Amino acid sequence: MNWRVPAAIALLVFLAWVGFEIGRAGSDIKVAPFAAPNKMRWGSIHGKRIDRRSWSLDFDTVTMSPDGLNATIAHVRDGRIHRVNKPDVLMKADGVTVNTLTNDLAIAGPVTFTVDEGPGRTRTFQTIGAHYNGGTHLLDLNHTATITEGTARIIVAKATVNFRTGDVTLGPIEGTKS
Known about the structure:
The chain is mainly beta.
């Protein structure tokens, strides 16, 4: 009997099977879906330092990045920057980006900070952008800011407020007092 013909057919079938398996290799592996940003409406987010609370923000909407590192907050209704043994600094802002790793706040749009400085003394900072460093307790008002206390009003090119020591460093000043 001639064994060459069945051997050739078996070899062709084997090669066809190997070619088919090579062609479909990898098609059974499913690609993980892309993680989409998480969005929440109407809530509160808090930042904490090792020693205590750092800040809290009541918001209309927040969008968390897929890796959870950044939170973009729209319309902060009631923001608070906590100070040790002093009243909280109140904040209202259009937009805030929170870095959850460093505990920093990047504030955009119109923002107002209200600081209670003791009996009958309230200081207000108004600007269009700021940066709060949660580790150093520094608030940088890096745009033109209007500072109001009582009837006194000062407009500065920039200002830095240290909530740990209470020091305020002002840039070039243009002031009025009635």
